[in-house]
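Troubleshooting entry. The earlier prediction with ZYH gave an output that would not parse, so I re-checked the input for stray whitespace and re-submitted. Clean input:
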Amino acid sequence: MPEESPPRRTPQNVPYQDLPHLVNADGQYLFCRYWKPSGTPKALVFVSHGAGEHCGRYDDLAQMLLRLDLLVFAHDHVGHGQSEGERMVVSDFQVFVRDVLQHVDLVQKDHPRLPVFLLGHSMGGAIAILTAAERPRHFSGMVLISPLVVASPESATTFKILAARVLNLVMPNMSLGPIDSSVISRNKAEVELYNSDPLICRAGLKVCFGIQLLNAVSRVERALPRLTVPFLLLQGSADRLCDSRGAYQLMGSARSPDKTLKIYEGAYHVLHKELPEVTDSVFQEINAWVSQRMAAAGAGSPP
Ligand code: ZYH
């Protein structure tokens, strides 16, 4: 009799058989989450989390979308949260995009006629943009919260980029230093929660991952003129990680006829976990925008 292989376990040592998961094209196990409405869903939305974090941090946003009768689904990207893969390492940024498309296809098999939306934050926003660009007309809309579109001039000077490319050849695992979470949100309670979340990887960005983020930035830049999906773009004016000039570039270069930008004056990067006046508005804007686009896409009405 062939010997049985031991069950695959999450980095936190939980067997995947006890958790919702999928196996990606490289054979890696990805932890999945589903927020399902009690009745028939009117639309689908995939939530794409950012670098270092995990999809459990989108529970509040997912609950809000669930109340609109959307089926919300997500996974932890490779190298993140409860998914397999070396922490914050990816062989190629396209792996993230490919895995999202696999998950979308999987959920759409059960709901073939429902409109599909994407929601992404920071690096997750770059993943959403590249996913939408790969499938023109497939997605009914996309919500972007401070997406990674340009390399902020502060963190990516020409010299630093060149140094990173050289370092990547000799020391790809060298750390570029952790990000300071206090410049990410003005909400102290949210910074505390971030600092104590055991599923978050707070180690510094590795050189090889920084290179993948730079590759993503240049791929996004090239994809923008092909982008036609309707989108809502939310951006803080004082974001020091994903500069607001990225938002203006997105507005200027995307071909989407239906595009909306809302700037939050003085707000930092994580708008969905910012001061209550910002975060409340972010939730309201997303709620109203998705409701309208769902109605436009004929969500929930008989075919
Ligand atoms: O996706 C990102 C992220 C992380 C690091 C990055 N570095 C770049 O872009 C990044 C994006 C640049 C660097 C220069 C070259 C081009 C790429 N995320 C998700 C965000 C950062 N995190 C921040 C911490 N979080 C969760 C979300 C937080 N912090 C405080 C309170 C609540 N959440």
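This one parsed fine. The pocket of ZYH is lined by residues 50-53, 122-123, 148, 151, 155-156, 179, 181, 184-185, 190-191, 194, 205, 210, 213-214, 217, 241, 270, 273 (CB under 6 Å).
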